[in-house]
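Narrative progress, year one. The postdoctoral researcher (J.K.) led the effort to move from monomer predictions toward full complexes, under supervision of the PI. The following entry was the first complex the group processed end to end, covering 227 residues in total.
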Amino acid sequence: DIQMTQSPSTLSASVGDRVTITCRASQSISSWLAWYQQKPGKAPKLLIYKASSLESGVPSRFSGSGSGTEFTLTISSLQPDDFATYYCQQYNSYLWTFGQGTKVEIK
Amino acid sequence: EVQLVQSGAEVKKPGESLKISCKGSGYSFTSYWIGWVRQMPGKGLEWMGIIYPGDSDTRYSPSFQGQVTISADKSISTAYLQWSSLKASDTAMYYCARQDSSSPRKIDYWGQGTLVTVSS
C-alpha cells in the first residue's frame, strides 16, 4: 500500500507569514492528492483536490502543487483562522492514505 | 443540500458488538463511494475502508481488514461500519466521507463524526 510522509509535523508561524507543507508518496500517485484542514472537534475540510484544484469557497491564499510523488500546500499569507492541523491524502484507485498531519501553531 | 448524517455517540463494553451508520441525502447515493476514517484521541486520520453502494464493491485498509465490516443499504441511502467484538483500542471518532466515482474523484463531504467509547 502507498505511504504518505508529511512534513513538518509542527510549524510555528505568525499572521502574514508564507507557510509551506510538504507531502511525499512512496510511489507515484499522479495527481490524486488532496489537502484538508481540521480544527479541534470538527470533521476535516477539503481545501485542495487533484493536487492543485482549489475547492469551491476556499480562500485563494491556499494553493497546491506537485505530481507523482512530491506535493506542496502553500498558504500565501497566514490568517488567524488558518491555525489548525493540515493533512494530505492520496486517493489513487479508491484506496486512501493520509499523511501524519501538520499542526500550524501561533508563533 | 448534500449531507452525510452519522448516528450518535456510543458507549460500549469490551467484547460487545456495534454498528454505526452514515446516511446520505441531497445527491445520488449510488454514484458516490463512501469511505470510513478513524481518528483516535489526539491522533491523525486513518483510512479504514470504502464501499460503492451502487454494487457493494468494498475495499479495506490492510490495517483494518478482518477487524471491521463495511456495508450499505442503498434503499435507505445509508452506509454502515460494524464491529463484532469491540476492544478498548477501538475508542475513537469515526467519520464517513463521500468520494465521487467520476473524475476528479474528490472527497468533498464528510459526516459530523460518531464518537465510540469502549470501556469496562
